[in-house]
Every structure is written in C-alpha cells, then in structure tokens.
Amino acid sequence: MTRPLIIGLTGSIGMGKSTVADMFERAGVPVFDADAEVRAMQGPDGELIAAIEKAFPGSTGAEGVNRDALGKLVFGDREALTRLEAIVHPAVARKRAQFLTDNADAPILVFDIPLLFERGGHEAVDTIVVVSAPPEEQRKRVLARQGMTEEKFEHILSLQVPDAEKRKRADHVIDTGTSLEETEAQVVALIEQLSASRE
C-alpha cells in the first residue's frame, strides 16, 4: 500500500490559509490543523496546562491558557519562546503521528502548518502549497482582527519568512486575492492534479 501524499499548507498571517484548509476538507482531503491542536491542548483541561503553568506561573486558569498573559511573558523574549516551544512542539508531533496513522488509507493529506519554513517542517512533506494574497489585502484582513495593532502585525511579519520567499519555495501557490469561488476552483484543480500524479 502506498502511503498518502502529504501536502504542507502554509502562508503568512492574513493570507487566507484557514479558508483554503477548509476548502481541502470540504473536497474530502483530511486536514491536520496544528494551530487547532495547540488550542485544544491549551484549552480547559488541556493536556499541556500543567506544564505551561509550571514553566510560566500565572499564565493559566479555569479556561486553560490565558493567551494574553502567556503572550506578554514570551512576546519579544526569545529564550521564553524557546521554553514554550519545547513544551508545545513535541505534543503537536505526537498528535500529527496519530493523525497519519488514523488516515493511512487516504490518497492525500494536508498538514496545515503556519510556520512550515520557519520551523523546518517543509522537510517532512511531499509538496508545499503556499497561500498568498496581495500585501494590501493581507494588511486589511489582519488589521480588521480584534485586538490587532500595526505594531503587533509588524512583529508577527518580522518572525515569518516573507511572502515572496515562501512563493519562491512553494511547489504550488493558491491565490486568495480573488473571489472565494475562484480560490476554491484552484484548490479543486490542485487536488485533481495531485491525485492524477499518484495514479
């Protein structure tokens, strides 16, 4: 039996990656959402709460991790961020391995990984799909988010591989600067193309 073709889906903040991941799912492709797994593990009764509270006292409560409190503790502090990642990343890797086992008979799988290039995850996938939109569209989407400021946006961008670089390193680019229908058509066409290449 051949193993599934693994798509690494990535894109900078505000590019529409989550929307594209939903489109893959609607088309019947199982999607592993790294961010959603982290949110679940950091939510009420999440399996990472105790370890995070121990490393960052006062950052959790009845609702799980207080993202604002934890954010303030790691924002701009490389060493603190590294400590947090040492708790989170191995747990995500275990969840991903389980997802692979559970979907071993699917022809194609998607790993939705925001920091695919930044964390070296691109080496663990078969093909890379980058979700991209024009910079002005990206800015408009991100600044419309609750609690987002120009400063936060610029800081997030500074931690991410630039969009132009991601597009250069991609095997496929999904353009979300168009209508949702056009974006979905690109996703469906890509699934067909990748499926055909497996036959």
Q: Which radius of gyration do the C-alpha atoms yield?
A: 18 Å
Distance between the termini: 13 Å
How can the largest sheet be summarized? 5 strands, parallel
Tell me the β content: 5-15%
The CATH topology annotation of the largest domain reads as Rossmann fold
Choose one word for the global shape.
globular
| CATH homology superfamily name of the largest domain | P-loop containing nucleotide triphosphate hydrolases
Helix-and-strand structural type:
alpha/beta
At CATH level 2, the architecture of the largest domain is 3-Layer(aba) Sandwich
Mean pLDDT: 91
Uncertain stretches = none
Would you report the number of β strands? 7
What's the CATH first level of the largest domain?
Answer: Alpha Beta
Helical percent range?
Answer: 40-55%
Provide a descriptive summary of the structure in words.
The protein is an alpha/beta fold. It folds into two domains: 1-30 and 108-199, P-loop containing nucleotide triphosphate hydrolases (Rossmann fold); 32-102, no CATH class. Helix content is 52%, strand content 14%. The strands form two sheets. The chain has a five-stranded parallel beta sheet with strand order 2-5-1-6-7, with helices on both faces. A two-stranded antiparallel sheet has the order 3-4. A hairpin with a 2-residue loop joins strand 3 (60-61) and strand 4 (64-65). It is globular and about 50 Å long. It starts with a strand and ends with a helix.
